[in-house]
Predict the structure.
Amino acid sequence: MSQSELLVSTRSTQPWWRSRTVRRFARHRLAMFGLVTIIILVLACIFGPFLLPFDDLYIDLRGRFSPPFTGYHFFGTDPLGRDIAARLLMAGRVSLLVGFAAMLLSTVFGTVLGIVAGFFGGRIGTVLMRFVDAMLSFPNIFLLLAMAAFIKPSPIMITLIIAATSWMEIARIVEAEVRSLRERDFVVAARMLGLSNSHIMFRELLPNAIGPIIVAATLTVARAILLEAYVSFLGYGIQPPLPSWGNMLNGAQQYLDSAPWLAIVPGAAITLAVTSFNFIGDGLRDALDARSDML
Amino acid sequence: MFRYLLGRFWQSLVLLLLVSVIGFAVLNLAPGGPLSQFTLTPGMTQADLDRIATQMGLNRPLPVQYLDWLGHLLRGDWGRSFRDGRPVLDIIWEHLLATLLLMGVSTAIAIFVGTCIGVLGALKRYSIFDYAATVGAMVALSIPTFWFGLIAIYIFSLRLRWLPAGNMYTIGHGSLGDYAIHLIMPSIVLALVNIAVWSRYMRTATLDVINQDFVRTARAKGLRPRRVLIRHILGNALLPMITLLGLQLPTILGGALVTETVFTWPGMGRLFLDSLGYSDYPVVMGLLMMSAVLVLVGNLAADLTVAFVDPRIRLS
């Protein structure tokens, strides 16, 4: 058998959806629960607003503070008489989009920085990782709020600053992974072949570190959604009238006694979405970890 | 040992310097920079702005400004509040104790409950309890702290009327019991996330220790299970937890900010938000720096504690 045939024969002939990883993921009950929940949430947020009889911005001052399940208002109305179900779905678009976008940005940045730091090591690696340590010394919320105070809060800027404060963990994970891969035979071989540094970093090392990156990225979505909720709840995130799950809770505390649903409904949505992403991340970790095969 | 301590101190110092660079960057590289507060004042002309910039030394090169700022910081001159003109450091000191009290009590709760859940989960691995604790921890990690706080207030102070909904003490009352009653809800709310984290790590740490030879030896020589659990298992499993406590500090401090807002607790987090509301940037920057300093000092303290407690490090 020639060498090329040998290489081909070690390739799995199965389609990807029947691979061991996917099957392991599908067996993870919590992860499947999370995946189904997220799919339902995303579909509801995309198509829901077209199906509801209410607009999320329509103000009906005579219908203020309707409790849930009264009339046509499934989740009741807010202090301006706006339908909470409609706002919840529109807010879901914003919150999920901000979460995904912040995850993409921070994953790309964290991964590139981690690969560079891990691959070059030495002084470059030390400086970069010390920078990561320094960023991690600030409590996330403090940094986020301090930045939010200086900028004009638009969804794009909020996404940017959330990404700017949540790339560090991915950088750490990738750096550690790359550092452990750096001296492996395939990298040494690539070096001896004279491949460029960027080829080795992004074509050889990156694909081999992809598992932990995917897991970390999933958990970053969860954290980004939470962070958006925190800043918006505190009034420095997404600004009304554009709804987000966080800013729907913004005024809820003063009506807690008379209209508790104002607080309960959006908070439950946040918890559900974040829990689901955490479950998916956990399932991916188990599925992608080859060592769990031996158990 | 001495070299370890020295190295650790040196590391913290370098980190502190980097932290100050980041803090300075946040302050200055934001659009508008330190002048942004004046641009909105009615009747402000470009000439006025230039004059203020000269007065504040903003037309000097950035590295010079940074060194000047750092020098003042190190000498304890953290600027003055825009709101009442008092020194920033004084204002922060006044609010620090309340935050440390909340964090301390909450962390104590989290450590106790988290340790119990983690060890039980490890001893009864794959039981219903272990499974419930795993799922519960993941849900607890996903609940927004402020929402959990709101729900707690709704149930325990608005409906059941057992606990006060906020503040640190009843005005004009202020006995020790009164403080304690006000402390219950915020500290438990803040503890939730840390109970989740702590129990997860404690479970792993216990599982690591439980199968080691010295535990088997201790059992084999007939020690009572309780003694084995406390001396051999807990003693060793808790060691890495000290480091974890240091690493968790940013999360706890960030959680304290949110908790303080919901419960109108007069600590650093509440001060931070109030100052944001008044665009009181010197206080905001001071708190940002102070939070990072607290985290760094906490991490250093955790590492030093481990070094003193763990003979493997102490004797090396």
About this structure: Chain B touches chain A through 48 residues (CB under 8 Å). The mean pLDDT of chain B is 85. Residues 88-123 of chain B form the longest helix (36 residues).
